[in-house]
Design a protein that fits this description.
Layout: H1 9-22, E1 25-29, H2 35-45, E2 48-51, H3 58-64, E3 67-71, H4 80-92, E4 97-100, H5 108-119, E5 124-128, H6 129-134, H7 154-164, E6 167-171, E7 175-178, E8 183-186, H8 199-213, H9 217-236, H10 242-255, H11 258-264, E9 267-269
Parallel strand pairs: 1-2, 1-3, 3-4, 4-5, 5-6
Antiparallel strand pairs: 6-7, 7-8, 8-9
Helix pairs in contact: 1-8, 1-9, 1-11, 2-8, 2-10, 3-4, 8-9, 9-10
Length: 271
């Protein structure tokens, strides 16, 4: 049986080693709820975070970074110009960037900005099923919570990937990732993770770190999802509830090894 080198856990584990060796600088223009969890997650995995949304320094940070993460969680008119500048700089410098379109279906302001960002062809779009479905005019999300199963968003994810030329990742009980041609499902994770605010945003930041150190965006994104989900699984083994889970996730990201990732990642290729 031929191994899929893009999604075989033994091959994807190499992405973690590559990240740790590269120590990528990841520029985050993220929401106020997610800034600290995202920065801590990046430090734990071995990356270097920058959490700046200032328009006057957006270009310099984006040019210096190996990856950019744009998160619309607590979207403010004052931060949109910085997002535009940073995206332009990342693209000019050939750097990957992640769009996390948090609840972009909730208001006309969010929808307008998310559609503008999507048209700029992000390297990775990461969202829950309702957020991805909303790009196709469907979905039943409520606030930041998904109201749809991941399976319902798979066709829209494929279409979005073809439109953007990048990777689209749908988070859920079993994550679905596609670049419009290849596809993978990652079943790592734990239900308790949904009880901790900003863990999804931290995952987007982790994706930025893998993209900043990786070669293939789809492969790097799958590795990021498997790593983060496995860390959540292991954290849940000793956590008493969501509060201690958040702490243990950071510990498990720090303790994760490529051998442990290769052994624990549950990835199904294709479909």
């Amino acid at each position: 049986m031929t191994r899929d080198l893009k999604t075989d856990p033994r091959e994807l584990a190499e992405e973690l080693d590559r990240l740790r060796a590269a120590k990528p600088l990841v520029h985050n223009i993220t929401n106020t709820v997610a800034a600290t969890p995202s920065a801590n997650a990046l430090l734990a995995i071995g990356a270097v975070p920058v959490m700046s949304s200032a328009e006057l320094e957006a270009r310099e940070f984006a040019m210096a970074a190996q990856a950019l993460v744009i998160n619309l969680g607590t979207l403010q008119p004052a931060t949109v110009p910085a997002m535009r500048i940073a995206i332009a700089a990342a693209q000019e410098n050939g750097r990957p960037w992640v769009l996390d379109p948090v609840a972009h279906f909730a208001t006309s302001f969010r929808t307008e900005i998310a559609q503008e960002m999507l048209a700029l062809r992000p390297t990775l779009v990461r969202g829950n099923a309702s957020e991805i479905l909303a790009f196709g005019g469907a979905g039943s999300g409520r606030g930041t919570q998904a109201g749809d199963p991941v399976s319902a968003a798979e066709a829209t994810a494929r279409d979005l990937a073809r439109r953007t030329g990048g990777t689209v990742a749908v988070s859920g009980a079993v994550d679905f990732l596609t670049d419009g041609v290849a596809a993978a499902r990652v079943s790592n994770g734990h239900p308790l993770m949904s009880k901790v605010t900003a863990l999804g945003c931290a995952l987007s930041a982790i994706c930025g770190a893998f993209l900043g150190a990786g070669v293939d965006p789809f492969r790097a994104s799958v590795a990021a999802f498997a790593t983060f989900g496995l860390a959540g699984e292991r954290a849940a083994e000793t956590a008493a509830g969501p509060g201690s889970l958040a702490i243990h996730v950071l510990d498990e990201l720090h303790l994760m090894t490529s051998a442990g990732l290769a052994q624990g990642a549950r990835i199904e290729s294709g479909g």
